[in-house]
Amino acid sequence: MSLTLRIDSLAYGGSAVGRHEGKAVFVPLAAPGDTVRCRPVREKKNYVEAQLEELIEPSALRRAAPCPVFGECGGCQWQHLGYADQVSWKSRIFRDFLERRCAVSNDCFLPEVAAPDEWHYRSRVQFKCRQAPQGFVMGFYRRGSHFIVDIEHCPITAEPINLLLRQFRGWLAHAPCRRQIPQVDMGLDDEGRIRVVVHFIGGDAEPLARYLRPLAARHEFSLFLQCGRKKTLQKIAGEEDLYIRPAAGLRLAYGPGGFAQVNLMQNRTLVGAVCAAARLGGDERVLDLYCGMGNFSLPLARTAGQVVGIEDYAPAISKARENAARNRMNTLTFFAAPAAMGFATEAGRDFDVVILDPPRTGARDLTRELLAAGPQRILYVSCDPSTLARDLLVLLKSGYRVTQAQLFDLFPQTFHIESLTVLERNS
């Protein structure tokens, strides 16, 4: 049975939304203003998930997606919408989560910060790989599956990585053990360096290392092999580190397996906003949870009395300490520990400002420690508005209020939302 719908909105997750007999119907690849025919594929009590079958009347918001595999590849959801409309809808979605679930006042929201370039912004990419009958395939998963869509050029990926992708496809097509290569990670830093991590699931990686080593030297990229978890990373060629510049005058290294934002330009904007919102006067004690290699810690340390960073990935903490030493900053202390454990034990509880930058799952396990510590100000950097709203609700019921909330678009062409929310303790 097919449904004919008028699409009226977009939802977090990327689908467009229409209504049928009182139920929300989620339709990927549709746009607000479309009239569509769609086929239900999953029905729940309050909503229906459907597949687009026919675009009966297109919305005025639509544009031709520049990527030839848009709609098949699962990497982007909104290339068929103009960029200004994408940002506008992200803002509506973000505001709706915080207003509806947390009763955040409209006057707390600052204007959204769009990306300067909606294309070629991705500095880190994971290409899935498979030896297929027609040749070696490198690309991304098809939406909703583990089938790999072959990618020759990705319009949201930085051009140096696109160029190397084309070369790697040819190299790996003739590589030994190519059937044991499930993934290739590529990263580009602020200084133009590229680091490649080739994942290998075979028994002996040495033939592959011998094959790739001279290619890495000739084309001047760093090369690592990973044969399981991150602890198996093995350097084959080149330098270990990539470098980002999160603020003027700061140069931070991060190693293979470490984390840096994929949009380096927008990361600088976000770091600047965090430093401004912290409102430091020079004497405060600041805690940076999920600190990684010091993306926020080091910029904040310029105007803080002391900064303590906590991160559970020990190699990232080693880089954070190296970064502090390299930048001649001696007011930082870093601990390798899960955030809640480090907060409760090693770092103590006497903080004026706490920065949270958790993974998509949020910081639910930290709310008890946060409330017990009672910092004057909490800055919550979130990549998921649903878990953000869940965590804020606990804090808002226990003595805090939101004073500022702002969306930063780090991921054009996708539904993903990065944001900064500032909370103050009630006096």
What would your notes on this structure say?
- This protein has a seven-stranded mixed sheet, covered by helices on one side. A seven-stranded mixed sheet has the order 18-17-16-19-20-22-21, with helices on both faces.
- It is an alpha/beta fold.
- The model has no long low-confidence stretch (mean pLDDT 96).
- The chain contains nine helices and 22 strands.
- The chain has three domains: 3-62, Nucleic acid-binding proteins (OB fold (Dihydrolipoamide Acetyltransferase, E2P), Beta Barrel); 87-117 and 265-425, Rossmann fold, CATH 3.40.50.150; 124-188 and 194-238, OB fold (Dihydrolipoamide Acetyltransferase, E2P), CATH 2.40.50.1070.
